[in-house]
Structure formats: C-alpha cells, structure tokens
C-alpha cells in the first residue's frame, strides 16, 4: 500500500529554487533511505512531503488510512531534537510513556500492554536502565535516543526520520537499523530515513533515494534519482 506519493515537487526560498521537479514514493513494508550532499535540501524535502512547508509546484499525496483501514499515524523526528535543561521535570520513563497517550484518552490509565511498549522502546535504544533518571541528566546522544524511544512507543505506521542516529555509537546504530528493518518487514511499517552514510545502512534498507543537483544550474536546484530512474 502506498503511504506517500510526491510528484514534480518544486520548492522556492525567496524566489530561489531549492528543490525542482522531485518525484518519489514510499510504500508500507519498506525501509527507504534518503541521501545527498550537505546542503542538498533533504530536510526541506521531508518537511514539504509532510506538509510543514508548502510546495511551490507539484503535488504531495499522503494516505489517510493504514493497511488495516485505520487512520494513518505518521511520526516525524527532525534533525535537531529539542534540548532539555537540567531542571526538566520528567523522568525518562515518564517522557516515553507520554507517547502512548495519543492512542488513548489522557485521563485513562496506561495498560500492561502500554507498559510493554514503553519497556521495549527504551530497551531498543539502550535506555531501560536509565528509565528513572531525569531527562536533564542525559547526554546529547542519550536525548536523541530518548526522542526515538518516545516515537517507537507511539507505534506509528510511517516513520520519517532526519538523521536519527546522530550521537549513537556503531553498535547502537546497527541495532537501530535492524529495528527499522524489522518494523518494516515484520510489522508493515513504512520508514523514510535521511542518512549521510548509505553504505552503513545498506544491509538493512530496501532502497535508496539520492538528491543530485542539475548539471546546468547552481547548487540550489536538485533532481531526485531513485535507483536508475530519474524523478525529474
């Protein structure tokens, strides 16, 4: 099932083209990486695909329901996760637990199933042992992993991730890529992830989308290439 279809998307900043004629798609059950050189407007493409930025031209279609006919849930992790100061009044476990409430009414208590999701999410990013610690005491890399854990706990259908492994060591990265592969192939999730190192995740991802600048234009205009197909 197709969760996202982008056709001939063009985006301008102050009348200058940043993305031009971009087309791509993401289906349920696949793990897709998005690459490009620094400044290749990868984050801008994600935001335009989500509707956070309005495209100048082209179309973006997002599915309204998932494979089970339920409302499609999209989780977006931006490149820079909001910082938490030392006095942030929440423990690691409480913060991740808050990711379960959008699936419930705020006044209902979390069930044993919810608690299992919370534990699995924290274990997946290596923070279960720190669950009683306050967020402000975590390092920058741990806060990044905490944001991922909260996202996992919300159990979305479609993950859109902008360089999510920043601050992770090699083992944590491999574990994360394996988790995303498992989520896509075993649970039918869709994953679109920006990365600077496609070779690092090549054993886990199904395909890669690469942003390239056009040969006859400044380094602000891009075409998108997917495998051997040009999207512009």
From TrEMBL:
A GO molecular function assigned to this protein is:
ATP binding
The protein's matches in InterPro entries, at most eight in alphabetical order, are given as: AAA+_ATPase, ABC_transporter-like_ATP-bd, ABC_transporter-like_CS, Metal_Ion_Import_ABC, P-loop_NTPase
Give the organism's phylogenetic lineage.
Bacteria, Bacillati, Bacillota, Bacilli, Lactobacillales
The answer, when asked if Nucleotide-binding is one of the entry's keywords, is: yes
Q: Specify the protein name.
A: Metal ABC transporter ATP-binding protein
Q: What are the entry keywords? A: ATP-binding, Nucleotide-binding, Transport
CDD domains in the cross-refs: ABC_Metallic_Cations
| SMART domains xref list | AAA (SM00382)
Q: Where is the ABC transporter domain?
A: 4-224
Superkingdom of origin: Bacteria
| Record's keyword annotation contains Cytoplasm | no
Q: Name one Pfam family in it.
A: ABC_tran
């Amino acid at each position: 099932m197709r969760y996202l279809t982008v056709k001939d998307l063009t985006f301008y900043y102050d009348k200058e083209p940043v993305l031009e004629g971009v087309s791509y798609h993401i289906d349920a059950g696949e793990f897709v990486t998005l690459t490009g050189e620094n400044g290749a407007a990868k984050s801008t493409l994600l935001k335009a695909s989500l509707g956070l930025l309005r495209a100048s031209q082209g179309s973006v279609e997002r599915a309204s329901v998932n494979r089970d006919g339920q409302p499609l849930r999209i989780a977006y992790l931006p490149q820079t996760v909001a910082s938490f100061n030392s006095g942030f009044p929440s423990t690691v476990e409480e913060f991740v637990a808050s990711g379960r409430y959008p699936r419930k009414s705020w006044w209902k208590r979390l069930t044993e199933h919810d608690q299992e999701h919370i534990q699995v999410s924290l274990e997946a990013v290596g923070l279960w042992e720190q669950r009683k610690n306050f967020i402000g005491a975590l390092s920058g890399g741990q806060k990044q992993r905490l944001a991922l854990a909260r996202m996992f706990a919300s159990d979305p259908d479609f993950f859109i991730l902008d360089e999510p492994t920043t601050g992770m060591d090699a083992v944590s990265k491999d574990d994360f890529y394996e988790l995303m592969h498992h989520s896509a192939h075993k649970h039918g999730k869709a994953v679109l992830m920006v990365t600077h190192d496609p070779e690092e995740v090549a054993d886990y991802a199904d395909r890669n989308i690469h942003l390239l600048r056009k040969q006859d234009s400044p380094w602000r205009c891009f075409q998108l290439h997917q495998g051997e197909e040009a999207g512009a």
